[in-house]
Amino acid sequence: MLKILGKPTSINVRKVLWTCAELNLPYQLEAWGDGELATDAPQFLALNPNKMVPVLVDDATVLWESNTICRYLCAEYGDGVLLPAAPRRRALVEQWMDWQATELNTAWRYAFMALVRRSAAHADERQVAASCASWNRLLGILDQRVATTGAFVAADDFTVADIVLGLSINRWLMTPLERPAYAALAAYYQRLSARAGFARFCANGMP
Questions:
Q1: So what's the pLDDT on residue 178?
Q2: Residues in the chain where the model's pLDDT stays below 50
Q3: Distance between CA 34 and CA 102 in Å, rounded?
Q4: 66 and 110 belong to one structural domain
Q5: Looking at 77, 108, 133, which one is the last position of a domain?
């Protein structure tokens, strides 16, 4: 059975859990991270020297980085359901996953730490405002994309890219900041709400 190491409140762990739900994959979850087992323990560091969750253990395969884990699960167990095998279609899915992990995550980090985590190290109001503005701007790009497709981010079919982006939208909606009224994005998020795992792992009261 798959083993997933990470606390179930973590946004990156929830990506993996939602992916497992979509693929009907059984797993064993071990709670590691803040408030749980310490990720600087030797047995955890042997799996991931970065001290970060999630970690996936699948027999002799050990993986970290949440988007990589999601891609692996889809490729190994999904039979093309969430991640197309055709190179061009797959690249489009991975493009949006990489955008989420780099551009979008970088934009929201300061604002989220200030407004949700109340981090004393993130109290510069100008940087908070800049982070919020960048966050809103990038979600405007996603709004334009789903307005064009009229369905999901890669095209007509739901893919693993929609899982990682759905969690990012949830974080945006649950952060106390001024947001533009993105109609296409709201309709897209509503479409995601029909998916297996959405209520449990995305719209579950956790940013």
A1: 98
A2: none
A3: 23
A4: no
A5: 77
* Among 32, 47, 77, residue at a domain's last position: 77
> Is the CB of residue 45 less than 8 Å from the CB of residue 30?
no
Alpha-carbon distance of 140 to 169, in angstroms, equals 11
Residue with tokens 């792992």: 201
Q: Where is 172: in which H helix or E strand? A: helix 160-174
Instruction: Read off φ and ψ for residue 113, nearest 5 degrees.
Output: -65, -35
pLDDT (tens digit, 9 = 90+) per residue, 97-152? 999 999 999 999 999 999 999 999 999 999 999 999 999 999 999 999 999 999 99
pTM (predicted TM-score): 0.96
Identify the bridge partners of residue 37 per DSSP, sorted by sequence position.
32
Q: Are residues 33 and 96 in the same domain?
A: no
Residue 45 CB contacts under 8 Å (≥ 6 apart), including other chains? 39, 51
Residue spans of alpha helices (H) in 2-154: 11-23, 42-45, 66-77, 87-99, 105-115, 125-149
* Residue 130, CA distances (Å) to 111, 126, 133, 182 in order: 8, 6, 5, 19
Q: Which residues fall within 8 angstroms of residue 104, CB to CB, at 6 or more apart?
A: 135, 138, 139, 168
Residue-range definition of the domain harbouring residue 67: 2-77
Q: How many CA atoms lie within 13 A of 48 on its CB side?
A: 23
